[in-house]
Write a structure and sequence with these properties.
two-stranded antiparallel ribbon; alpha/beta; 285 residues; nine-stranded mixed β-sheet
């Protein structure tokens, strides 16, 4: 299984062999034995290059989970059996405003626990879940991801904000048509906030062209404060600026920007006791 994963990651038998401190013929033989045993082709060999087949993709998904389970078994049977380790993914909303409370409560149960947090956008977190690089991810709802399980835990919304002196505040009623040609300050493609806003605009037959794209919510907030345009942000990250009056929310008629934050994990993931406890903590008020 480890050889399969290494070859998949490198798409090169020689590099995979070097990575695993093995010989290249041994790597080739292991892949051949897997292919013969299951009666499939895992990698196509064309012009000295390797290409992953559909069977190879499926085998890789299982292999990553099998390896993680084996490693967890070894850890839990050794001297650190009582030390709980979790790798949690979080979108920017959760990473900036919510996860700290969950970690504090978890460490109250497991004082010697180790928690690694990886904050990134939704598309990256989904790929990490599939590669078994995360135990759980706290993020917005996914769409049509049949290999992932979602557990709703928090009601959230997205807001459209601007400098309080922006011309649009002079209008009595705003629609999506009023904002589509404004200077839009948006998160990068793949971010949940961007995906939902773009989806809602597309449903109205509108297509957006942002003036700014950024992975940094702070950069978008500062740009909006400096009258560079209107920003689309998670309420959790904009609420303090709205409360202080440095930004003002633009209410857009007929646009539902509410969303659910969910706990996401792979359907093949073994849910350990520590993971169960962390999930329960996220549901606590």
């Amino acid at each position: 299984m480890r050889i399969l994963v290494a070859v998949y990651d490198e798409l090169n038998m020689t590099v995979a062999a070097r990575k695993l401190f093995m010989t290249q013929p041994s790597i080739s033989q292991a892949i051949k034995e897997l292919e013969n045993y299951y009666g499939v082709v895992l990698f196509e060999r064309l012009s000295r290059k390797l290409y992953v087949t559909e069977a190879g993709e499926k085998a890789y998904q299982y292999a990553t989970h099998i390896i993680k389970l084996f490693d967890e078994l070894q850890d839990n049977l050794k001297e650190n059996a009582f030390q709980k380790k979790l790798v949690i993914g979080a979108n920017y909303t959760v990473g900036a405003g919510l996860i700290h409370k969950y970690i504090d409560n978890f460490k109250g149960l497991y004082p010697n626990s180790e928690i690694m947090v990886i904050v990134n956008n939704a598309s990256i977190l989904i790929e990490m879940l599939r590669k078994n690089e995360l135990d759980l991810a706290l993020m917005e709802e996914t769409i049509n991801e049949s290999d992932l399980i979602e557990d709703y835990f928090y009601e959230d919304r997205i807001v459209i904000v601007a400098d309080p002196e922006h011309k649009l505040f002079a209008q009595k009623e705003l629609t999506a048509y009023d904002i589509v040609n404004e200077h839009l300050l948006l998160r990068e493609k793949g971010a949940g906030v961007r995906n939902l806003f773009e989806l809602r605009m597309n449903q109205m037959g509108l297509f957006i062209k942002p003036d700014w794209e950024s992975t940094s919510t702070t950069a978008l907030i500062n740009a909006a404060k400096n009258k560079m345009g209107i920003a689309v942000l998670p309420f959790q990250l904009a609420k303090e600026h709205i409360a202080s009056g440095s930004l003002k929310e633009l209410p857009v008629k007929g646009m539902d920007l509410s969303r659910k934050l969910t706990i996401v994990y792979h359907k093949n993931k073994f849910i350990s006791r520590a993971m169960q406890d962390f999930i329960r903590i996220c549901h606590e008020p």
